[in-house]
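Q: Here's a chain of 442 amino acids. Please give me its 3D structure as tokens.
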Amino acid sequence: MSDDVIKLFVEDARAVSIEDTAKILNLKFSARGHEHPQPCPNCGGTDTFAFNTKKEKWNCRAGGIGGNDGIGMAAHCADLDVRRRDGLLEACSIVLDRDIPDEGERESDQDRAARLQRLEERRQQNEADAAARADSQADFREKERAKARGIIKASSVLVDAAPPQGRYYLRYRCNGFPDASWLRVGANVPYWHGQDERGAPLELFSGPAMVAPFIGPGLVEIGCHITWIDLNEPPKFRPKLFGLTKDGIAAGLVEWAFGDAPPPDVDVADGLYEPLPAKKMRGSKKGGLIPIGGHPEARRWVGGEGIENGVAFGLWEGWRQDTFYFAAGDLGNLSGPAEPSSRFAHPMLKKPDAKGIARAVMIAGPKPKRDQQADDAMWIGDQVDELVLLADGDSEPVMTAAAMARARARHQRPEGQPRRLIPIVWPRAGYDFSRMAVEAGE
């Protein structure tokens, strides 16, 4: 009779889902999806542990262990040995959130005290490791910010710099440039990509570049945006750069050098070389913005993703004295993350799933994520009464429209405060404002 009671106790525990077990264990759930990565409650780490509520599985990479039921997951988190009968029943007790039947074996007080002591020591060690990682990341971030400030300091104010490439670049791209000191230009800014045989960063080339600061609240420089310039490469007037991929290294190919002919198209198509961006960011951009013209104390702000569109629109407006012109650096920094529940299916775009069936592409929705951090998107001055958001007409329109709507909602003042005017301005279909400005100038 006693064996039947214990067997039923164990079977009841096996019937508890991974999701319910995770709730009992106070594990973290991701905002969306079925996979929930996180630090392991036992082993520590950052994302070493995960459970999947759809597949009914869990896994700990740090401990090299996993399974497909809540008993094993609870046992690992609580440092119990399910190979021992008392360990198995203790894990079942956790999953069911009820005591072990009188007929079952239990841990001795000594074993329980030793196990809890081990868990506490690991918890303290995990916290110490996490703090050390945070300090290391903070040190790395501050070093990157220092490098960004060094790049800014080494460059000259674009409007009157001896190197003329910055002014020519903006004339070619936007039909003019701002009479302001925010944007800068460097004559020989290194472009780092890859590593040499000793693991040191490899300088792909060094050339003229437009340099712009990322500033945070208080106008503190937190990073920089770099646009390398090649006036012989219309229509973007940026150098064409290529990097050797892992497949290219495995194939015995050599690094592409600036000045060489572009790699054969077939090598690029086969993934042996990859085109590299001629724009990079150093330091931090998160929560910051790129000033273009005017001063952030203005009550009217105008800006979008890129510098070129902000310059073109400022030229079109005649650089209004009551306006601050800016760029966010990218669409994510402009709009911030989306509330997962606002995702929607693209009305036209589809892509094959794992089984080759065409499924609609899911788009991040127009609603800002709840409870997000202040620096999840660029900052806006409290005094701003009008925020003109510039959309990019040559990007995918549905995704862009959702992001712009999200930006408008994100940057609106809270309820109970005077509403902020936030119009979204679109260029001609298939264009951006810089291209419109160039064609208007011609």
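Q: Can you summarize the key feature?
A: The chain has a mean pLDDT of 91.
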